[in-house]
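Attaching the record inline, Q. Sequence:
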Amino acid sequence: MSASSHQCCIVGGGPAGMMLGLLLARAGVKTLVLEKHGDFLRDFRGDTIHPSTLEVMWDLGLLDAFLKLPHQKVQRFNAQFGDTMFTLADFSHLPVHGRYIAMMPQWDFLSFLAAEAAKYPTFTLMMDTDAEALIEEHGRVVGVRAQTSEGERLFRADLVVGADGRHSRLRDASGLVVDELGAPMDVFWFRLSRKDSDTDETVGRFDNGAVFVMLNRGAYWQCAYVIPKGAADTIRTAGLDAFRATVVRRAPFLGDRVQELATWDDAKLLSVSVDRMRTWWRAGLLFIGDAAHAMSPIGGIGINLAVQDAVATANILATLLRDASVTDADLAAVQARRERPTRLTQQAQVFLQNRVIAPALAGSADTPFKPPLVVRLLAAFPPLRRIPARLMGLGVQPEHVKSPKA
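Structure, as predicted:
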């Protein structure tokens, strides 16, 4: 069994892991990223790059190159409640360089970060490498054991960062406590072709009995059909024809292509969970992104909160990792920096789940849907739309990249 040593070993090549890998390598930290898949070409569904992340790319001097990748711009978020369309968020007033959400396949985003990180001699990315267990010595995490295409290997590091997502194996192995905050919904994700005659808008529709979101991805619509928690088996039992009919009822213009849902394999189920670790670290080990706090898909905020975690982590730890002087207090400082925005964001998501989505899903389809008070206020007073735009676009506490010499 071969072994290698690094200053930081990041497990998970998602947005948090790849951004942290880039930032640490840029700061001269000997960094290893382990990704269990062989490539980034997967249907992530969460493909929204918010203004906060675009601003990070600006900080890095990469925004112009990044925006050369295919993407669609969403400057306003609209939602239809019953028969009335509302603008809920207008990003055009944000004090940043990218005043919109960039809809971009996550594999393009991750590949771009990997290519930029590879320009630094201190960066290593290993694909097809599945970290299975923590290595501990005298109560401290000193590395991970992983399966590679060439067999089992040990990767030792001064710090292990768990960025392996909401189903984190490292988190399970750590013994740290996770609090479940609950979610009243699950989501069927699927895609349907898009025609030039279709609307350009990214929209959500709220009716009694259903919530349906359509994201404009250029050549296709990325669709999210929100259902009550645990209702997937009942919907599947009713049959695919019945499901297609409910989709057309929410978006009649899709009637000529809904047959593209050929089997249930075309509708992937996302079991929604919202949770948060009480403590994000142990000696030699830190969790960030979805591994530390799984987010609801509401607002597409999860990716961008994970990127903010990565920026804060690099800002606090890069110099310390270079000098091999990271302490438990430094790991606690990362959590202290990011826990407040995480808590406030999750509280807002849970509020929307309970006050907007759950009532919609519980309502009778035969009863007209009445928009919630907060939606009516946004419609009556347009300047108020800047508030959800700020929260969705920049978050509670946006982070900025420090100089690599800091």
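The chain has eleven helices and 20 strands. The two ends are 37 Å apart (CA to CA).

More tomorrow.
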